[in-house]
Amino acid sequence: MTASADFDNHLRQATFENRSRDLFQRLIMQASIAQGKRQITITERIQVPSSDHVAEIVGKNGLRIKQIREHLKVWVKTPTRDELPIFEVTGVPDKVAEAIRILQQMSEHFTRVQQERQTRTEPTRVEERLYVEQDKVGLIVGASGQTIRWVQQLSDTHIATPRKQEKQPGLRTCFTICGTKERVQFAKQLISEYVAMRCPG
């Protein structure tokens, strides 16, 4: 798309927003006159920290903004990605003030969520080996890998099975288990208990 086409699209969008706001203002005035009291409409602006805040406030398919518009009977102009993250709210003064307050609360809540995500530390993942007798590998893996998948799902780990080798009595091989320390230990416990149950003594 050319720069000229981009500009035309932006101009059409801006024109649509302005017409929608003007129509909303007229509807408010008509409703006020019908009620016997003429109410003025005002436009207030509120800037949020980022375009990510805008997306969070607007919601999927614009659902949150629609709810604010319908509940408070205000017009909320949302900024596009290439604009400053500033919302414009038009309506009667008390409803505009309420909408601005709600937008501010939503913005502050998302800021806290972002900060929590940044400070949250992921558990350290480890990689450990579980040595077993070579002739037990098939038992641990199970038919079509069902047993080892079951262990992985229960323990939330990733387990690499040893390469298939010629079975020789007394030789040992190993499974490699990846996950958090606690999960890896749990996976080892599950495997050991399963082998002990299937091969008592």
UniProtKB/TrEMBL annotation:
The keyword RNA-binding applies. The keyword RNA-binding applies. Residues 40-108, 124-196 form the K Homology domain. One of its GO terms (molecular function) is RNA binding. This is KH domain-containing protein. Coiled coil: none annotated. It comes from Macrostomum lignano. Keywords: RNA-binding. The lineage of its organism: Eukaryota, Metazoa, Spiralia, Lophotrochozoa, Platyhelminthes.
